[in-house]
Every structure is written in structure tokens, then in C-alpha cells.
Amino acid sequence: MSDGDSITIADARKMDTADPLSDLRDRFYIPDGDLYMDGNSLGLLSKDAEAALEHVVEEWRELAIRGWTDADPDWHTYGERLGARLAPLVGANPEEVVVANSTTVNIHTLVGTFYDPDRGEKIVVDDLDFPTDHYAIRAQLRQHGRDPDEALRVVESRDGRTIATEDVLDAIDDDVGMVFLPSVLYRSGQLFDIETITEAAHDAGALAGFDLAHSIGAVPHDLSDIGVDFAVWCNYKYLNAGPGAIAGLYVNERHFGVTPALAGWWGNDKETQFDMALTYDPEHSAAAFQTGTIPILSTAPLDGALDIVEDAGGVAALREKSLALTDFLIDLVDEKLPDCEVGTPRDPASRGGHVAVEHPEAYRISLALKERGVVVDFRQPNVIRIAPIPSYVGFEDVFRAVSNLREVLDENEYEEFVKQSGGVT
């Protein structure tokens, strides 16, 4: 920082010069003229991901069906191999992770598999969850003959932004068979205390599952050491695997051998898969939770994207820069945007990879920023989400984004846009 009280662009440039990860930016395609701060919704294309996709397209062209066995790497075990590459990011053993399905499908299959009313009828969730989690859990409760309105125990927020850990713990009792929560809240960016919640769930005889969609690739995890039972995530946010990229899942090894609720042939033991027996023979690993044939073209970009994570020094190095970026962003909002509020926890241990900037006109402000080439997104009711992704966003980018927001407010530019009427935000 500068010696004076005011943060300057020179401060930002000095921080960029000292950033050991700054060279990663050159491996990404950043849309011309954009300050891209929306990587927590969709990460950018990297040259590494592009090359991996082109590689499998070439193999498809040259090998056709022989690609399942003769490609390099072969397609038949693509999901398991990428699971092993993802395992260090979540603190798991290689066989506990696989890429498969979509996030919502993975919630269906894991909750459907592990929910046992005899263990406890109630499932603990929270009222700030991403909606798809509730949709899937409610559907699975109906499949088990339970009324979701009675079986869901919803932990309510005290402030509309965050969920207090003590409120989660108070919700866990002998009636609870499962706790399923996000690792990071998608609006405010609050990072949950996964270890404490998991321990409380297990003490009550319940299972603990988590949706890591807003932490995978941005926050290190230790799922196996903590004893988390299962987890799901998408790979198209901080991991930059592309729109609609294949999702990932984790299952603790103590649960290996169970038959998934959504059993499918791609989860069959690889050694017997082509015996075409009509009796399911599950893999003795997380790979059992694969359903249909792996979509290679929607999976390959992740292979290249993980090269960047590994070259950065792993997720711990990315987390260090991410916290520095979000600290810087919060300082800038405090200093330069007194008409806005920070809705994200200020404690780094309670913060994910994005910052929620709150303003009553957040929706129209987000549109005005996009018109200026500052790509952010809006979430109800008043949140502008700003995500400085550590692999391709620098400190000067953050400074310029806040400066643009200041100008939008000073010039009332948001008044040129109509109030929200639906659609993608």
C-alpha cells in the first residue's frame, strides 16, 4: 500500500509485480476490453483446456471407437483418472473421487443412496442454499415416502447473508440422519466450518455431505481427514473447465461397495462391464457413482485446466492469492464505495473466493458495469458478486473494477437501465 491513507493504482501495480502467479494470466483467453470478475459463475477458457479438447477431437477423428482403449489417455478410464487428479484439491484418496454426471444428478444419487430414515428422518439444510440442492433433496425425500416439508430441517439465517455455525449445531440431534450444506454460500461467499459440522453430525449418528461448487479450486479441503461422508461440485467455476462441464463427486472409502440409488452401466466394475450381465456389479470406489457413458468432449477441458492448478503449486497457492485479492477488494469497497456494503465475512477463515457488494440498485448497477466491460453478476435481492479469480485476475484489475463502480454511482449510469424483469443474471 501507499504511505498515505488512500489506496492507489500504484499500490495495485506493486502488488501485481510481486505476485508469483501473475504469469498464469497469459494462459487464458480474456475477452477483449473486459475486466472479467464473474469466474465464480463461469471460468474463462485457457489455452491448456483448449489444447486438451482439441486433442480428444483429433483422437475421435483418427481413432473413432478405438479411442476408448487406444487414446492417450484412454477414454474408458477418463473419469477415474481425472478424479485422481482432483483428489489433492479436496484432500482425498485418488479412489474416493471421480468426475461424473452433473452436480444436481450427483446430489440425487448421493442423497438417494445414503439417506436412511432408520438412521434419522431429518435432513439438515439451510435457507440460503443454492436452489438445486433443495430441489434434489426434496425429490429424494419424496422417493423415500417422506414429506419434504416435515423431513427437511432448515437452518435459518439471522442476517440474510450468513449461517451461524452454532445454529447448524443446534439443529443436529438424534432425529437427524443427514446434514447437507454448501461449503461456501453462493450469495455472500461465507465459508462454512466443515470440520466442526461433520464432527457434530457424526456425534449424532448422522452423515455429513457438502456441495463444494463455490470452493473447489479456490479453497483447500481435507475431506478424508475430517471424515466427510460425501461431496459434490461443478468444475466450471474456479476450475475453468467450460460451460456445462462434467461435475465431480467424493465418497469416503468407508462407504465403498454400496449400490448407488442411480445405478448405471458406467459405474459397473470395469473388469466386468462388458460382460453385459443384467446384475449390477459396482466399482469398489467412488467410480460406482458414475451413471451413463462419460461425455469425453465435456470432460477433456478439465484435463487441461488442472495443468494450471498444478503449475500454480496447487490449490493452497491459489488460495493465498485469492485471499489477498479479496482482502484488497474489501479494503477498496470500504474506502471508495461508502454507499455500498460488504456482505461477505471479513474473517479470511470464513470467506470463499468472491465478495458480495450490496446496494439497493445492485441489478441495474451490474448491467451498467457490464456495459463498461466490467463483467460481474447479480444475485437477489441486492448483491453484486465480484470474483477476482487468482489464476487470471490481478490487483490492478480489482482496482479498476471498483473505480468503474464508483463512476457508475457518481454519474447515476444505472438509471439508464430498467429494473429487473427476469432472465439470466
Automatic annotation (TrEMBL):
Broad EC category: hydrolase
Nuclease listed as a keyword: no
Reaction(s) catalysed by this chain's protein: 3-hydroxy-L-kynurenine + H2O = 3-hydroxyanthranilate + L-alanine + H(+); L-kynurenine + H2O = anthranilate + L-alanine + H(+)
SUPFAM superfamilies linked to this entry: PLP-dependent transferases
Pfam families named among the record's database cross-references: KYNU_C
Keyword Metal-binding among record annotations: no
InterPro entries associated with the record: Kynureninase (IPR010111), PyrdxlP-dep_Trfase (IPR015424), PyrdxlP-dep_Trfase_major (IPR015421), PyrdxlP-dep_Trfase_small (IPR015422)
Pathway(s) annotated for this protein in UniProt: Amino-acid degradation; L-kynurenine degradation; L-alanine and anthranilate from L-kynurenine: step 1/1; Cofactor biosynthesis; NAD(+) biosynthesis; quinolinate from L-kynurenine: step 2/3
E.C. code: 3.7.1.3
Cofactor needs: pyridoxal 5'-phosphate
Membrane spanning residue stretches: none
Keywords: Hydrolase, Pyridine nucleotide biosynthesis, Pyridoxal phosphate
Gene Ontology MF annotations: kynureninase activity
Top-level lineage group: Archaea
Function of the protein: Catalyzes the cleavage of L-kynurenine (L-Kyn) and L-3-hydroxykynurenine (L-3OHKyn) into anthranilic acid (AA) and 3-hydroxyanthranilic acid (3-OHAA), respectively.
Classification via PANTHER family: KYNURENINASE
Assembly behavior: Homodimer.
Stored NCBIfam families: kynureninase
The family this protein is said to belong to: Belongs to the kynureninase family.
Protein name (database record): Kynureninase
Organism, as annotated: Haloferax larsenii
